[in-house]
Every structure is written in structure tokens, then in C-alpha cells.
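Purpose: get a first structural picture of the assembly so the mutagenesis plan has something to point at.
Setup: two entries, given in the order below. No constraints added.
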Amino acid sequence: MKKLINDPADVVSEALLGIAAAHPDLGVDHQNKIVYRADAPVRGKVGLISGGGSGHEPLHGGFVGPGMLDAACAGEVFTSPVPDQVVAATRLADGGAGVLHIVKNYTGDVMNFEMAAELVTADTGVEVASVVVDDDVAVQDSLYTAGRRGVGTTVLLEKITGAAADEGRDLAAVADVARRVNAAGRSMGMALTSCTVPAAGQPTFDLPEGEMEIGIGIHGEPGRRRVPLAPAREVAEMLVEPVLSDLDFTGGDGALVFLNGMGGTPMLELYLMYNEVAKILQKAGVTVVRSLVGPYITSLEMAGCSVTVLKLDDELLRLWDAPVSTPGLRWGR
Amino acid sequence: MSAVPTEGAVDVAALRRWIDAFAGDVAEHQEELTRLDSAIGDADHGSNLARGMKAVLAALDSERPATAGALLKRTGMTLVSTVGGASGPLYGTFFLRMGTAAGEVESLDTAALGAALRAGVGGIVARGKSELGDKTMYDALAPAVDAYDAAGDEVGAALRAASDAADRGRDATIPLQARKGRASYLGERSVGHQDPGATSAALLLGAAARTLG
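Result (C-alpha cells, whole complex):
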């Protein structure tokens, strides 16, 4: 596998050097591998931090800025950050109103953020609340799994919750918005190819020509089932059907539809897929009021996509439309 | 004041040899651990643990802890701070709890080492909420501490029994369906694969049997 890297061991730290060079309005703590708003902490505002393994860019560092995250910690590729990083990010983001941890539901992420919240609360008294994102309908939520994974809804949640924090709400209210977004969002992904972790040097799994993986995670975890390659319209059905069967649209809510690229699929194909998804939703009577198309939560160079549908009430819609200014999402100011 | 060495006791130098041996084993088996993790996880167990153990050796070299508790706790803190993923908190908590149980002493007798190992395994259960048969490192560690306790007073024999039990526990993860961690997302497709965490845990006990006995 060919990659644009120097040494596999330096991939994350050298990418952070690039973020610092490209975005002077962001600060980068290279020691702790944290991207933060240069003006952090914002006095009186609830701080929002997230983090996770690297390899999902622009998530999370690309979503740091006014209207979204205050800080993001970068773990090694596909490996959650360690508690020290989360503690340091929490301190950077604390403007006196407490800090919300946005955690994707993976065993390692949950454990490291949990340890960090225990440490920071004991050492500094900063008030911390945590929201765990678990929106992946490919995983059965049962006693026999680690629960649903956090995938596409994370991007939408960071944007909407960031807007709520900007309005000056307190920590409990901001956390409540985050939980409402998580409860209203569902995702399902698929892969055409595997991806290669730089340190491993080999594709994480073999996916022969002519086959695809349905229900894929964002770490190269194999999906729920492997099926023969099919036309985009059939793939769209396979992704949308399980999402819709898990969301109740009878209340007449509008939908935000997020067609996400996994990193190795061109925008041409993503828009083609979006068209297929939109047709299915229209047939199902779902009114799409907002859309987002592009690679925002990726899995290195994996080819494939995921579909996230988020039910939007008036308040969530207003918060989605509020201004945001980050490397990954930017509108309204 | 220095403690009187006990016959057959495990002192700080021996514990250090154990950590060195485990670090060596992890480095040697790094690709195997990553390959096992590719099958049912995310292909990083070998590289993450190798990075963490390298940092542990550097920390122990610069700090030279004088007691069993200090050495084990420094090992745990360093793993928590450097490994990430699930294995960082889990291995880190193992050594932290083991160090707390060992205390600020210069050597551990067979019973004290057994109690410290059991405390470490208890920490893994508390942090990971794992149960026997979930297809995790606990499936290697639980039978190991039981075998240790059942083996009698001689520390070498107890550790060999623990290491053998850990190897069997590791092998017994192959037919299991994973119920914890990323492997659980695979459901039935996790059956037939050896758990990478149980594999590294068996290396940990194997290193102990070679160096502490």
C-alpha cells in the first residue's frame, strides 16, 4: 500500500504540524496532540471537547472552532486518546461553565474518557458531563455486544451541540441537546475496500473484487455481512432500510440527511448515492429539510459511504443553521 | 532499613526482569498480535502494546523504583498514558491495582504475589466489566490466578501452573463468540479466531513464569 508519509510512527504528529501550519486560528498542543481554539477557553461558555483515534479526518480536529468544538484530542490511528490527553483538553476548554465530553461508543474511547473524567474531577474540580454517541444500526444493541458504535451522527451532534453552547446554555442543558441529537440520529455504512493502518502496512481485511461489506464500522472492522457488489440504487436500499426501520417519522419531523464518504470514494459517487437515498426517503414520506454530502467521518482511504438520518425538530434545525467556523464545516459568518 | 530476603521471594529486581521479558515478548509477537486483531478487531493491539512497553522500560530506567508497589504502579501509569484503546486502561489498571496490593515492600512471597495478581485481575474486571467467556483477556487471566492459588507454596511452580492455565484459556477463546469490545460487532463471525487480548495476557504470564520462578 502506497501512502504519502515519512515514518509510520510520525503520521499523527506530522499531520498535527500541518493543521497548525494551515490554520493559524487554531492552536495545537503537540505534546498532548490536541487541536484547540486559539481563543480557548471562552469565558462563561460550556466547553465542548471530543477526541478519538486518528484516521477519521476531518473528525474531530477539523471541527474545532467557533460554533463547534473547543478542543479535540487525537489518538494514534484508530486508537482512542489516553486519559492524559483528555484531561489536558478539558483544562484548555474550561471557561468556568463546565466541559462536555463527546465520546463515540467504542470500548477504548469510553474507558479512556471515563478515566480522564475521574482524574480531572478529582484534581481540578472542573465539572464534566459526558455524552456517548451510539447511532450505528448495523450493531445490535444487546447484552452480547459493546453496544451500537458512534459514527455519522457524531458530526451532526458536534455541530448542533456547539451552537447550543454558543447560546450560553448551562452544562446540563447543553448535554441534554447532545443526548437529543444522539437519540434522533441513526446511521449505516458500507465498504467497497478495506483500509490500511500505516503502522500495520497491510489492509485490515481482504475484500475481493466483486464483493462489498455491509454494516461496516469506521475502523476497518469487518461489517455484518459480505455480499456481491450491487448497483448504487440497491446499496442505497440496504443502507436506508435499517435506518428508517429504527426511526419514527410519524410526527412529521423533517430530516437532515448526511451522506458521508469513507475517505476513498469521490464526490461524484457520493452525490450519485445521495440521489438514490433521497429518492428512497421521498418514497417513504420523509421530508428532507437539510443535507450534508462529503467525507466528514472517514476511515483512512476506505472506499464506501454511510448514510445518517437525523430527525430535526424546530430547535435542532435552528441550531444546525447557526453559524459555524471550523476547517471542516463553515457557514453563516 | 532493608527487608530480610525471603527464600523464594520475588524482589524488585525480579519484577523488573518480568517487565523486561514481557516487553521483549510483546515486541517479538507484535505482528502476531496485530494479525489476530485484524481478524476480529482493528489491527492495532501489537503496535499499541509494543509502544506502551517501550515507554515503560524508559520510565523504569529513569526512575528506578525501589519497591514492588512503586515499580508496578509506574508500569501501570505509563501504560495508561501511552497505549490508548481498550488495552491501555485495562493493562494499566491491572498493574496499578497489582502495585497497590503489593504495597511499598522490597519483595513478595508466594501468597503476596498471588494476592497482587488477583487484585490486578480484579481491576480488569472492574474497568472492562468483563465476564468469563466474553472472549477477552480475562479468559486467560481468570484461570491463571485460580491455577496459581491452587498450586501451593512454591512460587515457580505456581507461576508455571498459572502460565499453562493462561495458555489454555487463550486457546479456549477460539470457539467463543465475542461479547465485549470491537470483536463483539462481528457476532458469529468472531467464532474461530483467537482473542488478541487473551494472547497478550498469556505472554504476560509466560514471562512471569520464566523470570519470577
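The beta strands of chain B are 10-11, 107-108.
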